[in-house]
Amino acid sequence: MKNHTKAARAHFIFASCYALPCVALLVAGPLLGIEIGWQLPASAAALSAAHAVMGWGAAQAKNWARVLTLVLAFPALLAVPLGTLVAIQLISYCWLGWNGRGAALALPGFPMGAK
To answer: Given this model, what pLDDT does residue 112 score?
Structure first.
């Protein structure tokens, strides 16, 4: 399986992990008679949408999705232990270009190394 497909699956899993508690809060709140503020479900929905968009971009092997995944994975290294493990995995999926070549060739403007 290609790395961009693995990254896309990871982002779609994250999107569902944010969406399920959001739906659970919105359904369980009125059933239990608890008033749920809009901030938590809105934040979870925004994170879910962001991961869904990044997953779509990764599934299409878009370079912006690879770069954005790297940008978001490096701060996640500080979320010990689970965030660190997930971030290392995402970085390993995205470090090299998704077109089968090295990262220097995947990023325009970077000089090529020796062949």
So the answer is: 47
Helices (H), the chain: 3-32, 39-59, 63-76, 82-94, 103-106
Side chain identity at 110, as an amino acid letter? Answer: F
Rounded Cα distance between 40 and 71, Å, is: 24
Q: How many Å apart are CA 75 and CA 69, to the nearest integer? A: 11
DSSP assigned state of 109: T
Entry pTM: 0.77
Q: What are the tokens at 9?
A: 């699956």
- Could you state, in chain order, the average pLDDT of each consecutive group of 10 residues for the chain (115 residues)? 92 94 86 85 92 96 93 93 93 83 52 45
Q: In one letter, which amino acid is 64?
A: W
What is the residue whose two structure tokens read 């990871």?
10
Structure confidence at residue 115 (pLDDT) = 42
* Dist. CA 39–CA 22, nearest whole Å: 11
DSSP class of 111: P
